[in-house]
Specification:
With 102 residues, the chain is an all-alpha fold. The chain contains three helices and no strands.
């Protein structure tokens, strides 16, 4: 009954997994190291290194949170599938058929 919705929820979860992987792949450190290296020995160099670490950490946390949302969506889709199947079984217990089908 609800399979289309379940499929769409799972598809969105897959898209979110791809987004999380892309966010996780963002490389802040490589370019920032060259900037920090050019400012070595100055307060700006240390600030650049610290900002790089904070930015890298923020992207990593963002990726983790998007992954958590995708996981929650998969769990919800699985629960919905079980609920839908259980609903179908309960309807079948009535063994109702239209008069022309008897």
């Amino acid at each position: 009954m609800l399979q289309a919705d379940i499929d769409q929820i799972n598809a969105l979860a897959g898209t979110l997994d791809a987004v999380a992987a892309n966010v996780d792949a963002i490389d802040v450190r490589t370019r920032a190291k060259s900037v920090a290296g050019g400012l070595a020995g100055t307060p700006l160099g240390a600030a650049c290194e610290l900002a790089t670490e904070y930015t890298e950490g923020a992207w990593l946390r963002t990726s983790g949170r998007v992954t958590a949302v995708a996981s929650a969506m998969r769990i919800a889709a699985d629960d919905l599938a079980v609920t839908d199947a259980e609903f179908g079984r309960r309807l079948d217990e009535f063994d109702y058929r239209a008069p022309e089908c008897r």
